[in-house]
Give the backbone structure.
Amino acid sequence: MAAVSIRDVAERVGVTSPAIYLHFEDKERLFYECCRQGFELFAARLVPVLTSGGSPIQRIKRMGEEYVAFGLDNSQQYLVLFGTVPEGMPESELPNDPGHQTLSGLVTLVAEAKTAGEIRPELDPAPTAAALWAVVHGAVHVVLTRRAAPAIVPVPDEKSIVTTALEIAMAGVTTAKGKRRLAAG
């Protein structure tokens, strides 16, 4: 974000710098609104999984698959969305932020899976959801790195990275009941 100025943005869209300030109070707000639009696309892909069919643990796995698919299908946008954090975002705006809503939905889904006996009872839903997010986020970054420089990640294919990451993540949090439901789903 530091490498882009309001002047650069204004020039790119064909307006003057003061015109940008008619719509956005500062560069951070402009950046946040751009990211928010990206997160709306992200949420549109993941939120339907929250209420789709299947057990909670099956939906968690599908959310991971959709997260990876979004990242790989939208690699440049993904890198901007998840590569930086907008500064100065008021906490009062979090409930309406699509990225925050998606993570909150995952926390709720993890809690449902825990209640259903599919996730280990000692796991707290919020850090578990964040850890699952970290795994799929890492898988996307590794695949994007492989695409840019295959020799850096010497594995036979992208699918093996994603499949293995999801299997390891799910194995780490599920109970025997959860494993059976994953196998059935």
